[in-house]
Write a structure and sequence with these properties.
The structure is a single chain. The protein is of the alpha+beta class. The chain folds into two domains: about 25-150, no CATH class; about 155-295, Immunoglobulin-like (Sandwich). The chain contains five helices and 15 strands. The strands form three sheets. Strands 6, 8, 9, 10, 12, 13, 14 and 15 form an eight-stranded mixed beta sheet that branches. A four-stranded mixed beta sheet has the order 1-4-3-2. Strand 3 (about 115-125) and strand 4 (about 130-140) form a beta hairpin.
Length: about 300
């Protein structure tokens, strides 16, 4: 009976010891992050979801802290780093620094482009103990990509300087004149000079650090300002003429009303003829103001 109890206690102790050893990372693994919280790896299976700040990038650890006590410099382990633009397949492509649109839009509020921070372990005698592996992502690569980095800010600046076409308001009845309660049909009329939705704009490569960048405006919606305190939109409907136009507005009182149609646009861009990528920005192109005169009809008896 006593032997059986001792056997059970021994088995329980060994099981607890095994669990503790599984949960406890090795000494080198625990020190891998070099004291930089939020991105350093403590397990090969960890997913790196936090972006490294500029401070973290500028203070990357050079070696595991546990190696400080190693006397023989040939056995001391140090870190080497490599920065790669965060494009598809980059993690497996050593030394890649070519740009892609997905890396630009990966850093909306920071400089960018989105960059992978890779690291490897090298011993003093040159032996590679662990090859390149991901330790973080950052929007603050600085000059570490080897050439001036095109960023989303360059694309936004190009979008802000697009020479948009003038946006006019077509109306029916004609001559900017109607009667109360009679629906006025409105229609978008882009001028032929300038850029309108769907056209492709080639940006001067000198402004894009040598990259070939194309912009393509994308319509978000039109907003119809009727001048009587009411409006409609944004809507993708460009309006039309009687009787099939989708935007019609009657006026309840006589008067002259300032009217216009505004367009809200976003845009897509592509690098060096690649796939189109949406810019996370919008611009408003104000319409050219015009007026609609509304009159009251009076019945008149005519003696024939």
């Amino acid at each position: 009976m006593a032997k059986d109890v001792r056997r059970r206690l021994q088995a329980a102790f060994l099981a607890a010891l095994c669990i503790c050893s599984l949960q406890q990372p090795s000494q080198v693994r625990a020190a891998d992050n070099g004291g930089v919280d939020g991105w350093g790896e403590s397990d090969d299976r960890q997913t790196y979801v936090h972006l490294m700040s500029a401070t973290q990038v500028n203070n990357l650890p050079t070696s595991p802290s546990v190696e400080a006590a190693v006397v023989d410099p040939r056995k001391a382990v140090h870190y080497e780093y490599q920065f790669r633009v965060a494009c598809s397949g980059t993690e497996q492509n050593q030394g890649r620094t070519s740009l892609c649109a997905e890396a630009l839009v990966g850093c909306i509020n920071d400089p960018g482009p989105l960059t992978l921070v890779m690291r490897r372990f090298v011993r003093g005698d040159g032996e590679i103990l662990r090859d390149w592996h991901l330790v973080g992502r950052t929007c603050f690569p600085g000059t570490r990509l080897g050439r001036p980095a095109l960023t989303l800010a360059h694309i936004r600046e190009a979008l802000a300087t697009v020479p948009w076409a003038k946006l006019n308001t077509g109306m029916q009845p004609p001559n900017n004149l109607t009667l109360i309660t009679v629906p006025v049909f409105y229609q978008v009329q882009w001028a032929t000079e300038g850029i309108s939705p769907g056209e492709v704009v080639a940006i001067d490569p000198a402004r894009m650090l040598g990259y070939r960048v194309d912009l393509r405006p994308v319509l978000v919606g039109y907003t119809y300002q009727f001048g009587d305190g009411s409006s409609f939109g944004p809507t993708p409907d460009p309006g039309g003429t009687y009787p099939n136009g989708g935007i019609a507005h009657p006026y309840a009182k006589a008067g002259t009303y300032p009217v216009r149609i505004d367009a809200t646009l976003s845009a897509e861009f592509r690098l060096d003829g690649g796939a189109w990528t949406r810019i996370p920005d919008q611009v408003t192109v104000p319409g050219i103001p015009t007026s609609m005169t509304v009159k009251t009809a009076r019945a008149v008896l005519v003696n024939r």
